[in-house]
Design brief:
This protein has about 220 residues and is α/β, with parallel strands linked by helices. It folds into two domains: about 140 residues, 3-Layer(aba) Sandwich (Rossmann fold), CATH 3.40.50.1000; about 60 residues, Orthogonal Bundle (DNA polymerase, domain 1). About 40% of the residues lie in helices and about 15% in strands. It has nine helices and eight strands. The strands form two sheets. A six-stranded parallel beta sheet has the order 5-4-1-6-7-8, with helices on both faces. Strands 2-3 form a two-stranded antiparallel sheet. Strand 4, helix 6 and strand 5 form a beta-alpha-beta unit. Helix 1 crosses helix 4 and helix 3 crosses helix 4. It is globular and about 55 Å long. It starts with a strand and ends with a helix.
Amino acid sequence: MTASIVFDLDGTLVDSAPDITAAVNRMLAEEGHAALDQATVTSFVGKGLPNLVARVITHCDMDMGHHSRLARVTLDHYNRNSSTLTVVYPGLVEALGTLRTRGCAMGVCTNKPEAPARHVLEALGLARFFDVVIGGDSLATRKPDPAMLHATFAALPDLPRLYVGDSEVDAETARRADIPFLLFTEGYRKGPVNSLPHTASYSDSAALPELVDQLLGTS
């Protein structure tokens, strides 16, 4: 039996925190503010770029009235260098290849804007595995609203479903969508693993095919 599997992007398929941090710090430098460390910026990741920039503004005691402009500036910096420092998690390419060989249909549902999401997937050699990509600006809502996840699955074959992500936002999205959730524990979650509702968890992407077999009976 095959399956339809949807993945989050940042913190699940790729470690993009270095490029996101670099874009934020370029914006801050232009505004005359000191750089933030990667751990701080990573703690702001998960609900899309506008939310991330809002949290940076609050953290740095900047004027929220400039949010729209600073979000555009940060996105522009990110678009210029969205795959310079970003890396694919170990074992993932092989795992996706195995799932594809077994007939699984796969998609990406991310709060990252669609254009840079597609660029990252292309630049890192992952685009070939995915039939659909829904980004944070593809619809009127963002995760944890389940509409994005529903739309991604709607574009895939009607097969047993599984959502794979790394964060509280992903866990809540899966809960609202009533989709089994597989948690990658090495991503950008804020709290302990046991604080996130999930069907199963993994720390090594190479384990994905076996876990999918266990959860959905694929072969």
